[in-house]
Amino acid sequence: MKILPKDFKIGPRTVKTVIAASLAIIIANALHLEYATAAGIIAILSVGNTKKSTYQSGKNRLLNFLAAMIISVVLFSILGHHVLVFGLFLLIFIPYSAACGMSEGIAPNAVLVTHLLIATQITPQLLLNEFLLNFIAISLAFIVNLRMPNLQEELSEREKRVEHHFRDLFKRLSFIMNKQSEQAHFLHKVEDLEQYISESLALARTHMDNRFGDGGAGTSYDYFAMRATQVEIFHEIAEILLQIEVTVQKDQLTALNQLFKEIGKSYAKDNDGKALMQQVKETLDIYRASDLPKTREEFEARARLFQILQLIQTFIQIKRDYILESET
């Protein structure tokens, strides 16, 4: 019989939370603060997934603490220490915190206000006690998160994989049109790439938030954001292309296939797309110079081909804009 669930594991964040909570209580006790265990609870709530989220959460909790103390002191001083007054406090404090974007401070600061509720008198010493409980917990939460894993190596590897998959997909575009059995599989591969880029973007965001203040930490995030936009366009290109009947507009399809092959060959992170953009324009010139469609099928195929070329232009322009922004 299994005692622990299948997915049970003790991760780094759990260990950090345990350390922060334990130290918060120990320090609060050492300073002879009242309600020392509250520091441990606040520390548990304050350890975030990233360094940036922990910092922002802690800052908001401290600012929110000031508001909580001011509101509660005024209410308790005027209306007395009664549970209904505490309810009135929450009625004001919760929407105020939400409106100020500091919702994460509601629970811990409401707990601290209960200490004022049960006190016979609100003194400067009591207010200092509550501040120190908050400050100790938040400080320890930030300290334990100072050391975070460097994800840059993994992100660089993911960038290489994305480049490889894009090259492969562009090359495949040139021959899947007349292979009906492979078209569904091809679209699945595009969807897999979309998912992979989405996961990489989330990982890059985590890395950036753990390196906030580092000007170069957002490079991978910008890269995957650019690729996320491109893969959506690529998906649209593929779906339109597979609607075209291969028996019509053969010359135009040949020119388009050649363009796909060139993109597949030259697809790279540092390619500014200038040469590819010129080739797209040349392909458009070929289309414009060709005979007008004679049948409805040819007309629809020509319209879709023009749409694909426009999407390819957008696809390449996104990369050009990314390169230009990276150079500034």
From TrEMBL:
Membrane protein topology class: Multi-pass membrane protein
Localization in the cell: Cell membrane
Keyword annotations of the record: Cell membrane, Membrane, Transmembrane, Transmembrane helix
Record-annotated Putative aromatic acid exporter C-terminal domain positions: 153-320
GO cellular component: plasma membrane
Top-level taxonomic group: Bacteria
Record InterPro entries: ArAE_1, ArAE_1_C, ArAE_1_C_sf, UPF0421
Name by which UniProt lists this protein: Aromatic acid exporter family protein
Species, as recorded: Pseudolactococcus laudensis
